[in-house]
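Next up, sample data.

:::
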Amino acid sequence: MLTSRKVNLIGACLGFVTVGFGAFSNPTINPESHTCPDVQTIGGQICRGQVPKEMPEEAWGQFGAVAYQAAAEVMRSNNSEPQPLTETQKQYLRPHFGDLVDRVEVVYNATLMEDWVAASFKINVGESNAQVYGNTIYIKKEMNEKDFEQLVLLSHELIHCQQHEQLGSLGNFGYHYFKEYKKAGENYRNNQLEVEAFDFEKEFAESLSKKMPGSYRPR
């Protein structure tokens, strides 16, 4: 789901929301000086990049709520305007996603992020082909509406769009994504939100292979 560029989301969060660490402590970051809360608070430690790796799942979730929104802003500013799915893409995807295919947008030839980096809060997914933020999908390659692999990739990312809509906001999705990542032992593939997306991706690929004989290559 997630990320050729590294972004330190401590800085991104500071710029995105002045009370971003209020979830961790009552003192907030000063919007004028960008000073950190007290070093004894969790928010103060995060701000200084000193968060211990043993931080609980809840802290990961609370930080993810802010970080995901900040990352969405970074991605939007670093890429071109998105475009809707083509009618051909919708034809293959609508039976599984309904009118969600009319709401999502895609950026092709996108600049992706390698990591979400913020102290110990780091999700590393290695070489990523696509990422999704809300209902905007970012794909590294150029658009090829009849390409089997790209359609399968879109099906995976659409599951994340669906999860985002079910959770109700960027912040809620970020909260659950980071929390589930921590719960999974910081293993990207074992994150429950990714398990759901990968399981559907496999089902969709098998279904699509019947419409595009010779295209399916099991992973």
Summary: The longest strand covers residues 113-118. The two ends are 17 Å apart (CA to CA). The beta strands are 5-8, 83-84, 105-107, 113-118, 121-124, 130-133, 136-139. DSSP finds eight helices and seven strands in the chain.
